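Sequence in, structure out.
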Amino acid sequence: MQNLTKHLCIFGVFIVIVIFSISIISCKSQPEVSAELVAQVNDSYLLINQLNYLVPENIDPELNLALKKNLISKWVDDEVLYQAALDDGMNLDEREKFLAEKYYKSLLIQRYLSLKIDRNYRIPQKEIEDYYTEHRK
């Protein structure tokens, strides 16, 4: 009888630990999602500011709404497929990784140059003529 009581006590403690663990896990705080949430696929979120990055400026308000609806739908489709690819263990090959890195670098270079180059810079006509005269054959 003592063995049975001892086993029941151990089993009871085990059940309490399991229930406590489950409650801790289920109470795990979800990442805080902004009120600006537009769409969600599992743990991926599309926020309004990200959606706005995709919409050209100065677009007609009616077109803006239609475009945003299409972009949201496309984002959801893409995210579902992306997550399916990850679940299947897919990854980029070396060539694709190189091309992605090259594209990233070109975007950064473009941004750098646009910030550094004064778009209002004008070369004086006299300087052009002097250069031409000096380098003429």
